[in-house]
Amino acid sequence: AEVIHQLATLLKAGLTLSEGLALLAEQHPSKQWQALLQSLAHDLEQGIAFSNALLPWSEVFPPLYQAMIRTGELTGKLDECCFELARQQKAQRQLTDKVKSALRYPIIILAMAIMVVVAMLHFVLPE
After folding, report:
1. Which numeric CATH code is attached to 2-102?
2. Fewest beta carbons less than 10 Å away: which of 20, 35, 38, 59?
3. pTM of the model
């Protein structure tokens, strides 16, 4: 989400897509992301559409990303589509965190109940 949001900000500031990707590649701390972003920038310089350049990276950019990027390319509102993708990914991450948080307490209670039952079966019932 962070990379997409940064890309949207750069596009809104007036940079071209390949310039934005190259700039993000230079500044990203992860070597893997640097290579990925440089590869995408290179594909764009070769004339490949951004949505098509994302196809080999489907494990990083799921089909929803590809569809939203294609929509942004067709409508000329790529920056808005990138902002929307970042917003949606952030909301999805927040929902996942809430679900994990909500499940934490019942799992702890269940684990404690299992330990009590095991302790009773092991120590109390054999007598």
Report:
1. 1.20.81.30
2. 59
3. 0.75
